[in-house]
Amino acid sequence: MSRAKTRLRWAAPVLAVSLFGLWELAGSREWVPLPFFPPPSVIFATLAEMTRSGELPMHFGATLSRMILALAWGGGTGLVLGIALGYSPTLRAIFDPFIAALHPIPKMSLLPLIMIIFGIGMFSKTLIVAVATFFPMVINSMAGVRQIDPNYFDVAKLYGATRWREFWRVVLPGSLPMILVGARLAMTRALGATIGLELITAETGLGSMLFFAWETFRTEEIYATILVIAAFGYTFRAIVNGMSARLVPWQPDPRGS
Q1: 38 and 96 Cβ atoms separated by less than 8 Å
Q2: Which residues of the chain have a pLDDT value below 50?
Q3: How are the residues of the chain apportioned to helix, strand and coil, as percentages rounded to the nearest 5?
Q4: What CATH number does the domain containing 221 carry?
Q5: How far is the C-alpha of 180 from the C-alpha of 184, rounded, in Å?
Q6: Is 9 part of a structural domain of the chain?
């Protein structure tokens, strides 16, 4: 690895440490109002205490379980439908106008309707998150199939490939880069929608932790929970990047690494 790439790899961690150090200095010198900007040392101590007490693992597990279930529902359905729409012009002509019409609607605006129909239980909350994850997956999966060079299909037919073999050898590998982009967007949407729902409807989860910390004016807990959510989002990026390196090694890395 060249020195330039090594420097770029360490740029973000060095910047983060520098910002936290500056924040700590500002707090220790009382350059900022401490009730609103507690220093990082206090925030990390609060984070450690929340972990030791079991409060953070419980709420983290609640958020994670809701997200995984919603991703399985919405993301899985979007993946299958998106591939089908990209592969079949007939299905695309039927369903694509509905997707284009429904996609811009704010998903949280559907919550009252969903709660009227299905009640206020776990199913309704998971369903609204699933809807939020559905659209990134269906749109990116469909785009992934459509951008495949038609010559690949011609070659597959020339060699007598069945529809099933054509799917595994042409459609899936060719659309996988866009599918992974959709997966990353779906994960991010799932996290945002889950936290938003927990802020207003749930008694457990990271969103409910944020709401309770706001009610009791525990700003250090607000910052600690936000750090956990940020780490959540960074983990999604790392997972998708790892999957991309393993599943689509032929795809060039836009960072040049």
Answers
A1: no
A2: 254-257
A3: 80, 0, 20
A4: 1.10.3720.10
A5: 6
A6: no
- Contact call for residues 142 and 86 (beta carbons, < 8 A): yes
Q: Is residue 34 helix, strand or coil?
A: coil
Cβ burial, residue 137 (10 Å; 0-12/13-18/19+): buried
Closest CA to 121 of 212, 197, 49, 61: 197
Q: How far is CA 225 from CA 43, 68, 83, 102, 158, in A?
A: 9, 19, 37, 32, 57
237 Cβ partners below 8 Å, 6+ apart?
A: 184
176 sits in which H/E element: helix 172-200
Is there a domain that residue 186 lies in? yes
pLDDT (tens digit per residue) in 108-122: 888 888 888 888 777
pLDDT of residue 4: 60
Q: How many domains does the chain have?
A: 1
Q: What is the residue range of 200's domain?
A: 39-247
